[in-house]
Amino acid sequence: MIRAVIFDMDGTLIDSQPIWYRVSTEFFQRNHFPVTMDEMIILTGSPVGKLVDYVLQRYGQREKNASQLTAELMEYAVSEILVAKPLMPNVKEVLVNLKQQGIKIAVASASPRNMLQGIVDSCGIAEYFDYLASAEELDYNKPHPAVYLHAAKQLGVAVNECFAVEDSVLGMISGKAANMKTVVIPAKAEWDDPRWSLADYKLATIAELPSLLG
Fold it and tell me: Mean per-residue pLDDT for 162-186?
């Protein structure tokens, strides 16, 4: 029996991946790193710190250190996302449905808490969430299961009673490693990736999620 649904944020609840691709490419190029958008796309699902580490390892150190670059990129990306408010279609309807079924709802994200809180507030969906878990506050980020385990603990729900809902392979691995039932909602361009076979369920849209609980 499923008692809780724990969502990833970027790419799952909000259509932020195109914003991340654009913003990260612009940011690194502005700081004299010749990255391409294709490189940023390949790193989908990675925390900001890992993006910065990748760029520094590939292109070498510039004027700013890793912590400066990470903080500045995060601030830039969050500001762009909060302006766009790119909520995925049907998200609010799904959250309402889950609440009506008595399901607890949380977020388990690699993003910092101020971004998570800002997004749910600006998109008008904060009232549906029982907890917002940020891996930035924990010892490990995705694909480690820590953020999902932390979210389940805060909800007071056993891991085998949780759905982990993800759009990235790294996130799926995180949910599976937490011993949760994993639901993936891939982007259309990634639909045929054979790695999705690791998931318990594969959906075309978030609107299909409540049917798994009926």
Answer: 97
